[in-house]
């Protein structure tokens, strides 16, 4: 069925947009300021740095671009190994398809679907250069343990924070917990910059400078002062703005060609307004999640993802699991919920089983926990702030009715 036929369609927007965003857009359009690389982008990035707690936050055109630039910072070479999680959207590791590196999939923690630190550690070799993790659904991964392992082996860590804006981990924010943080402002995320957008966060000043080059039309290169000026004139003139370095520098090495990934000023202006809403948006998600949990708690075979006392889950996704000992058919339960008008999207198909990764030698059985959770136990329930009160009530009533049916003896929802 199309989303229009559902009583509770899976929301296509993860945030709310209104007068604040319209006012921000009107301000940009009516001004005579540049529409690229101006004061709105600078303000958005400054406020993001203040929120996350990093020295640098550089906005780009998408979360996928953010991840690509972050991976390029690592200067990976042929034969290097990168450990990644299979339980995420394909964009997290997609840039690695273009590199001559060996990708190793760790398994996940069955309680959280985040990367299992023990599995990560078991895969480390002398060639391991990086670890890519995701804070699944908005619940921060076990970052203290992951960073302990990484530091012991001199390995860099990239955290994909696409789900985790608004989350808190032991008093700190995702995006400041590892070497590099990447955020997405896609339409489905916790805030949006008009449908697409991303951010990269780092503390290292050299990396901040390189990121700034890579997201612009400058190359990410190693420059030194030229031993002599090039040309007859002594240095660049103001009207040579876009070629000034050619008069004063020599290039020793080009690491990355650079690209035009500058977040436009209208998008940045909306991002500023959305950051102002973030606490309210997360509060709404958490209120809906609490109500869903209250319904699920009545059914012993429904297992919830725990939230440690020193962690705050932003609930980009609400996920629960069916206890395998109950003998229930996950797919039939989701179908029954859909018949009642609730649209579901199960996120995410294990990445190592996608065709592009099977083409590189990955196979079923490589991550048995992730596979079992996705194919048999995992259910994602809508909890976006755009759900109306009526839609939330319909969702809760449907969950209660279908799970009550599942709990009855001889239920048609049992596995055959």
Give descriptors for this structure.
416 residues, alpha/beta, Aspartate Aminotransferase, domain 2, Aspartate Aminotransferase, domain 1, 3 domains, 12 helices, globular
Structure overview:
The chain is an alpha/beta fold. The chain contains 12 helices and 14 strands. The chain has 3 domains: 3-217 and 259-266, Type I PLP-dependent aspartate aminotransferase-like (Major domain) (Aspartate Aminotransferase, domain 2, 3-Layer(aba) Sandwich), CATH 3.40.640; 228-256, no CATH class; 278-407, Aspartate Aminotransferase, domain 1. The protein has helices at residues 19-30, 39-52, 63-73, 117-123, 143-152, 205-214, 245-248, 265-296, 330-339, 355-358, 368-377, 389-407; strands spanning 56-60, 81-84, 102-105, 128-134, 156-160, 168-169, 180-184, 198-202, 220-225, 249-256, 302-304, 311-312, 318-322, 378-381. The strands form 4 sheets. Strands 1-8-7-5-4-2-3 form a 7-stranded mixed beta sheet, sandwiched between helices. The protein has a 3-stranded antiparallel beta sheet with strand order 11-13-14. It has a two-stranded antiparallel ribbon with strand order 6-12. Helix 1 runs antiparallel to helix 8 (265-296), helix 2 runs parallel beside helix 8 and helix 8 runs parallel beside helix 12 (389-407). The longest helix is centred in the C-terminal third of the chain and has 32 residues, at 265-296. 44% of the residues are buried.
């Amino acid at each position: 069925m199309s989303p229009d036929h559902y009583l509770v369609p899976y929301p296509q927007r993860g945030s709310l947009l209104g007068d604040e965003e319209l006012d921000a857009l009107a301000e940009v359009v009516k001004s005579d300021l540049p529409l690229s690389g101006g004061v709105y982008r600078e303000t958005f990035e400054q406020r993001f740095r203040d929120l996350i707690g990093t020295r640098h936050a550089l906005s780009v055109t998408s979360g996928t671009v953010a991840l690509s630039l972050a991976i390029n910072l690592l200067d990976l070479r042929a034969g290097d190994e990168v450990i990644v999680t299979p339980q995420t959207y394909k964009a997290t590791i997609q840039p690695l398809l273009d590199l001559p590196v060996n990708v190793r999939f760790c398994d996940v923690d069955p309680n959280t679907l985040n990367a299992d630190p023990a599995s990560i550690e078991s895969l480390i070799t002398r060639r391991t250069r990086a670890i890519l993790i995701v804070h699944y659904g908005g619940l921060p991964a076990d970052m203290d343990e992951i960073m302990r392992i990484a530091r012991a082996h001199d390995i860099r860590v990239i955290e994909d924070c696409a789900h985790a804006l608004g989350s808190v981990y032991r008093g700190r924010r995702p995006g400041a917990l590892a070497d590099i943080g990447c955020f997405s402002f896609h339409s489905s995320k916790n805030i949006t910059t008009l449908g697409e957008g991303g951010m990269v966060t780092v503390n290292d000043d050299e990396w901040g400078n390189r990121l700034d080059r890579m997201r612009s039309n400058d190359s990410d290169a190693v420059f030194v002062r030229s031993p002599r000026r090039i040309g007859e004139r002594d240095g660049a003139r103001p009207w040579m703005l876009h070629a000034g370095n050619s008069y004063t520098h020599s290039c020793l090495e080009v690491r990355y060609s650079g690209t035009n990934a500058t977040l436009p000023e209208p998008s940045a202006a909306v991002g500023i307004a959305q950051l102002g809403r973030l606490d309210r948006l997360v509060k709404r998600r958490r209120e809906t999640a609490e109500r869903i949990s209250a319904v699920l708690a009545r059914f012993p075979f429904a297992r919830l993802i725990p939230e440690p006392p020193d962690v705050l889950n932003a609930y980009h996704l609400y996920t629960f699991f069916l206890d395998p000992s109950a003998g229930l058919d996950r797919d039939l339960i989701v179908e029954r919920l859909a018949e009642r008008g609730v649209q579901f999207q199960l996120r995410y198909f294990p990445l190592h089983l996608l065709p592009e990764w099977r083409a590189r030698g990955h196979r079923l059985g490589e991550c048995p926990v992730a596979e079992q959770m996705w194919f048999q136990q995992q259910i994602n329930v809508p909890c976006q702030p755009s759900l109306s009160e009526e839609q939330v009530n319909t969702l809760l009533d449907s969950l209660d009715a279908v799970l009550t049916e599942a709990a009855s003896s001889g239920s048609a929802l049992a596995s055959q």
